[in-house]
Amino acid sequence: MDVYILAIESSCDETSMAVVKNGCEVISLSITTQMDTHAKFGGVVPEIASRMHTEVITLVLEDCLEKANMKIEEMDAIAVTNKPGLTGSLMVGVEAAKTLAFLYNKPLIAVNHLIGHIYANNLESKMEYPLLALIVSGGHTELLIMEDDYKFKRLGETQDDAIGEAFDKVARVMGLSYPGGPSIEALAKTGKHTYELPKPVKEQDYNFSYSGLKSAVINLVNKEKKQKKEINKADLACSFQEVAIDELVRKVELALKNTNIKKLVVAGGVSANKYLKAKMEELCKKYQASLLIPRMLYCTDNAAMIGAAAYPKYLRKEFSDYSLDVSSSADICS
Amino acid sequence: MNFKFTSRSIDDTLLLAENIESEKFPGMVICLNGELGSGKTVFVKGFAAALGVDGNITSPTFTIVKEYNSGELPLNHMDVYRIEDNEDFGVEDYFNSDGICIIEWAELIEARLPEERLDITFKILDENTRVLVFSPHGEKYEELCNAVL
Predict the structure, then answer these.
(1) Chain A interface disruption, residue of B38, B42, B61, B89, most A CBs within 10 A
(2) What is the per-residue pLDDT across B44-84, written as a single tens digit (0 to 9) for each?
């Protein structure tokens, strides 16, 4: 029998809900920043600000069910992100999920946001194990081995800034717009790798570090400013992007070599970067490994991935009761 | 009265932060201001180590708040750079707890900050040198500065 899960995500900036069938098929997906808010608000509010979860959550629910042409009664479970994230933001989603679960007498499933990012890949094509998973986003940079459903082993993670943060901060210093990823990528296209920037960390270690690279860019910009020299922004964007992403490639290559695993999934907002995509494709070809990257919509924060990650828990009947709490931090491996 | 400290390396900044005896100071609020790359997160790393927080302190810029509960007191590490228009993200709840709050880019939420607190401003002099200016507000914070600096 088909399983329909109503999933809720509100861990950071986005409020999102989705109806997901059998953990792999998106029936409907609503995300505040992509919703037609003009229609919903009668054109009064031109854009919904980030983290206004309380204000918009019922609208998102209506929009999501309307698109799916389904009722809550038809759902088999309610899933929600309960960690990691901003406590206040998470709480809005969790309270909504508890209320719906109680009112409609549905099982409640708690999902880790990061595990959601990985399971976004199931929305594209069924993941096969064992695999290597790279999570690259605004808040996270992690490399993991996944031996089976919900069986994770961490190889490495960032020791300071996440890669998405490094892109944002470098963009800020260079006077580019937020978020930094797309603006640096666009500018890098017209530039060359001419600036010498330090490689992030130790050779034989899976951990990442982006704070030193960030500081090197800041120092460079400050130095040129003092000497009244003009920075070639396109070249700097290109140099930074290549060093930052080549570091990911190097760690993944080390993992492919050492583990002999032949499958790689990439998840999180930074996987939308085309240079990253091209480099990972090249690498996987070299090691005869398969590569899976979700489409852009499923890479950034969304509830469909939460529905996908909730499905194995539904099958195992791993349900939460109404005492379910939120947590700002979470270890994917525990 | 303000206190000045010149840091010549990351280790200098770490050591200074480690010397603050935060475990005796529940509800402590420290506000860090200064441009990108001036060492704010480095300071928090040293501070957290001294408090006995396990594991690594990573930047909270994207998530806005990271909570650590493994030390002698809960540590709430915030970066409010992405907060706009004095948005209410529940920061007062953190101030009213026994935990310690360290806030990067605190000047952006000036109106929400408690009166008694320690402000630290980071200035970049050159590649490795930073000047840290400590401005205590309230007697407890003045005593703290006298003890450390």
Answers:
(1) B61
(2) 999 999 999 988 899 898 888 999 999 999 999 999 998 87
